[in-house]
Specification:
The protein is α+β, with helices and mostly antiparallel strands. It contains five helices and ten strands, in the order H-H-H-H-H-E-E-E-E-E-E-E-E-E-E. It has a domain of about 110 residues: Glucose Permease (Domain IIA) (Distorted Sandwich). The termini are far apart.
């Protein structure tokens, strides 16, 4: 096409519109020949499209709130019959109980931030309160076989010198769950349970939160 003809097109808008419509119609016909879908396929595409619109229009915080509520209101448990209380929701304080029956043989001191309870070999050991088993391990140096429980208020408790460990990591436990038995493992001169409580990363005197014997 010459420059003169190009300049003529600029001054004939009707011709431009007519040519544009013809070109558009031809293009649409070619696209329709290439892309053909059945009525069923069209309906499927329509349903998917509507689903995406509904999903994108949902409140952003809804999925976050659902995840948070599950984290607080745990109900399933690997310990038959036990149920984790929703302490964080209700605001009630966590109640601690003695993990084993026996005589306190060593009290809490700055050098011994724990309580030792003397008991017969294989006496049942239970957690201080409900929670999740964070770790079950063997320390060959001092603690021997030990279990750490993370309670639902964020505190942790440790039970050491166990003869047997009867729980596994991530298992939910209640004050009625037997987590192990009193033993002689690790560095000890007699059968007893060594247990500790940690709050906000610091060890506290277990006697300060346990009921009087």
């Amino acid at each position: 096409m010459s420059l003169l003809n190009r300049s003529n097109i600029l001054y004939e808008p009707k011709a431009v519109i007519s040519d544009g419509l013809k070109f558009s119609k031809a293009l649409i016909k070619r696209v329709l020949k290439i892309i053909t879908i059945t009525k069923e396929e069209f309906n499927s595409v329509l349903i998917v499209g509507l689903s995406l619109v509904l999903l994108l229009s949902a409140p952003i915080g809804s999925s976050y709130q659902a995840a948070n509520s599950y984290a607080v209101t745990q109900s399933k448990t690997s310990d038959p019959g036990s149920q984790i209380k929703t302490t964080l929701e209700s605001g009630e304080s966590l109640e601690f109980n003695w993990p084993v029956s026996g005589v306190v043989s060593q009290s809490y001191t700055p050098a011994h931030k724990a309580l030792d309870v003397r008991a017969d070999l294989n006496t049942p050991v239970k957690p201080l309160a409900q929670g999740l088993v964070e770790s079950a391990f063997t320390d060959i140096y001092g603690l021997g076989r030990a279990v750490i429980v993370k309670h639902i208020d964020g505190s942790k408790s440790l039970y050491a010198h166990l003869n047997k460990i009867l729980v596994k990591e991530s298992q939910e436990v209640t004050p009625e769950t037997q987590i192990g038995t009193v033993g002689l493992t690790g560095r000890t001169t007699g059968a007893h349970l060594h247990f500790e409580i940690e709050e906000n990363g610091k060890k506290i005197n277990p006697a300060s939160v346990l009921p009087n014997k």
